[in-house]
Every structure is written in structure tokens, then in C-alpha cells.
Design goal:
Length: 400
């Protein structure tokens, strides 16, 4: 685990009990499912439902600390206190945490409480008690970035910002976002409208499927950026507003479900993406054309899109990160359409205003809490460099 704040990096490693990751992953996945069911798939749940769901995650998270570290749990908490001193709810100085692990050791660590756990937790009945409880979770009090050990680190164009070089999407002509959708979702149109509000600052590509892109082969080609010239971006972000069926027992059955206005349903399985990516890599290697397109950020705003197969750790984020995409944003459990649309709107608003990727996600979680008392922002996770920006935010004009 690496803590970054300003220009300072501090690393720490923690030994885990044998077999602990699988046990912890199952417990947390069960708890997060209780959370989303307790909210009754509402954007604005009742206080009692919020308390019921978060209390489950909180108590399970405390138990997971014992599952993972056992007798060494006090040592872990002491190290985390040293790694993350004075973590609070301030808007500035929020530390970034990079969790690096093997793919079979991934678990929703963001849902583990580690702050103020020696103090009694107040029942959630108002904004203050909700903020107090949610601030105990590492996924809310810090900006967490996951990285699977061995996956390539993608390098975006660098731009001088403030006092350092940072990774940026070159958006002088607008941030290009490719849309994949399931048209039957009533909030899919709302997500697109939220993006269209940005005018020329956000250029929509698609949506797919469409009359011209209507087969699984064509959809897979768009996702894998097959026709994009080497070294170029066609889209900076591929945004999915759709269904996602995650089979945590059989990872090849993880399926992205899409449908256009005039197209039948198209099911893209992880197996389809994997097979085609192997073909493309082999073709480039044998043909001597190794350079590929610059691969975009994946924002799979669908139910359980970041869920991890229980035994092997296979998942959609693991696939995209291993292929060298700029990053992956997804969810750990089923998310109501209204919550997904609200989160999406906040994210693009913040990102285009000039916030970093990690701050855009953090502020989106906060907006769900402050405006709707909804804690489901916690289940949005990121496999990406948190310090990605747009090169030209709102109010800054590109050179003529």
C-alpha cells in the first residue's frame, strides 16, 4: 500500500493470515449486497434504511479486520495511523492510497472501517451522524486506487499543472466519450442528457449499438479500439450505461448487456473480449505492427461491473487493466439506475471543471451523501491513476 499526499510517497506492506482474502471477499460482497437491498433501490432512502445497510457493512468490515490480520490487527491499525495521520473530511489535503495486490487478492478494501473504530458509532438518523459513520471507511476518507500487480502502467500525455507534470487527456477539441447503452434503462437517456449539457466540451461518440454498429463483432471492435490509428485516441472515455451480469463463480460468463433503439440485445461476454484481444496481440506481433491505439478510461456504470470472481480474482477490471487501458471505474454491487445517473453527472461535471480523477470520484460520492443521503458512492471503485486530469478544464481556453 502506498500513501501519496503532495509530492510525498510512503509505502507499507502487511502480512495477511493464510486463506484470509477469500473469506474476507465473500463476507464483504455479502455485506454490500445487504446495503443496496436495504436502500430499496432508491436514490433518496429513509434514514432507518441507511442505518440498517451501513451498520451491516460496518460490522462486517470490523470482522474482516480480524479475518485479515488476526492478532496483528493492532499493529496494522497503528501502521495505518502513521500512514494516514489526521485524516478528516476536509476538501484539501486528502491522501491518495494505492492498493497493490495480486488479482486473486483483490477485495473491496474501501468498505473496511479503520478510523475512530475505538469509539462508539452513533446511530444514523441525520446528516451529521451519516457523515460521522461514512468517514470511518477508508474508501470515503481517502482516495483509493487499486492496481493489480504485474499489470502495465499506462502513460498518458504529460502536462505541466501547478508545480508538477501530470497525466492529462488532450481535450483541446473536447473530451471524447464513447457511449455504450441499454436503451431499455430509463436513466440511460438521462446520463446522455447530463453529458450533452457540456456542449462542445464533451463530444459524444455513438451511442452503440446503432444501425451501423449492430453486431457483437462490431461492438467488440469498438471496445478494443481496433480501428484507431496507433498512438492516437479516438475516445478518451468509454462509458457504459447498461446491464452487467457478473458471475462470481464462472468469470467467463461476466456479461455486458447492450441494446440500441433499433437493434436486438447484444451480450458481450468477458470471454469474447479476451479471445479477440489475444487475436489482435498475436496479429500485431506476427505482422510486425506492435504499436496499438492509446486506450481509453473505461467507466462501466452498471451493476456489479467491478465484481471479482471468488476463487481466481478474474474480473472485467482485471481484463481492462491487463490490456493497458487508461483505467477502469466500476461498481461492487447492483446500483439503481437513478443512482448511476446521478453519480455519472457529478463525475463529468467535476472532471471537466478540472478536478483530478480521484477528486472527481470523491466529490461524486459526497454529492450522493449530501443531496440524497445515499451511501452507494462507496461501491464505486477505481483501477486508475488518481492524478489524471483534462488538459483544458472549464474556463481555460486551448491556444488558438
Amino acid at each position: 500500500m502506498r500513501r501519496s499526499i503532495g509530492s510525498e510517497d510512503v509505502e507499507a506492506g502487511f502480512p495477511l493470515k493464510p486463506g484470509a482474502v477469500l473469506d474476507a471477499r465473500i463476507r464483504l460482497q455479502d455485506a454490500v449486497n445487504v446495503l443496496r437491498r436495504s436502500l430499496h433501490f432508491k436514490l433518496k432512502p429513509e434514514w432507518g434504511d441507511v442505518e440498517l445497510g451501513l451498520a451491516e457493512v460496518y460490522d462486517v468490515g470490523l470482522g474482516v479486520l480480524d479475518v485479515l490480520f488476526g492478532a496483528k490487527m493492532p499493529e496494522f491499525l497503528k501502521t495505518m495511523k502513521q500512514l494516514l495521520p489526521d485524516v478528516d473530511e476536509q476538501e484539501v489535503g486528502v491522501p491518495s492510497i494505492q492498493v497493490v495486490c495480486d488479482k486473486d487478492a483483490i477485495l473491496p478494501f474501501e468498505l473496511v472501517p479503520i478510523f475512530r473504530i475505538d469509539q462508539e458509532r452513533p446511530p444514523i438518523c441525520n446528516d451529521d451522524s451519516l457523515t460521522e459513520t461514512i468517514g470511518r471507511f477508508i474508501g470515503h476518507a481517502t482516495n483509493v486506487r487499486r492496481h493489480i500487480r504485474g499489470a502495465p502502467v499506462t502513460h498518458l500525455p504529460l502536462v505541466w499543472k501547478g508545480d508538477s507534470w501530470v497525466s492529462c487527456f488532450p481535450n483541446a477539441e473536447g473530451l471524447r466519450v464513447g457511449i455504450f447503452q441499454e436503451i431499455s434503462l430509463k436513466e440511460a437517456a438521462a446520463e446522455m442528457l447530463g453529458m450533452e449539457r457540456h456542449g462542445s466540451r464533451l463530444i459524444l461518440l455513438g451511442p452503440w449499438p446503432s444501425g451501423r454498429v449492430s453486431s457483437i463483432e462490431e461492438i467488440v471492435a469498438e471496445i478494443l479500439c481496433e480501428r484507431v490509428p496507433p498512438g492516437e485516441f479516438r475516445a478518451h472515455v468509454l462509458h457504459f450505461s447498461c446491464h452487467c451480469d457478473s458471475d462470481v463463480v464462472s468469470p467467463s460468463n461476466v456479461t455486458i448487456r447492450l441494446r440500441g433503439e433499433q437493434t436486438p440485445r447484444i451480450d458481450v461476454r468477458l470471454m469474447n473480449l479476451h479471445a479477440r484481444s489475444v487475436f489482435l496481440r498475436a496479429s500485431r506481433a506476427i505482422g510486425g505492427t506492435l504499436p496499438a491505439a492509446n486506450l481509453p478510461l473505461i467507466f462501466l456504470n452498471a451493476c456489479s461491473s467491478a465484481a471479482t470472481e471468488v476463487f481466481t480474482g478474474a474480473s472485467l477490471p482485471e481484463f481492462f487493466q491487463s490490456q493497458g487501458y487508461a483505467g477502469f471505474i466500476g461498481t461492487e454491487t447492483a446500483v439503481p439506475d437513478t443512482v448511476a445517473a446521478a453519480f455519472s453527472k457529478e463525475f463529468y461535471d467535476r472532471f471537466l471543471e478540472g478536478c483530478s480523477l480521484s477528486d472527481s470520484l470523491r466529490r461524486s460520492r459526497q454529492a450522493l451523501l449530501l443531496e440524497h443521503k445515499n451511501p452507494l458512492g462507496l461501491v464505486y471503485v477505481a483501477y486508475a491513476d488518481g492524478d489524471i486530469y483534462v488538459e483544458y478544464p472549464t474556463g481555460r481556453r486551448p491556444p488558438e
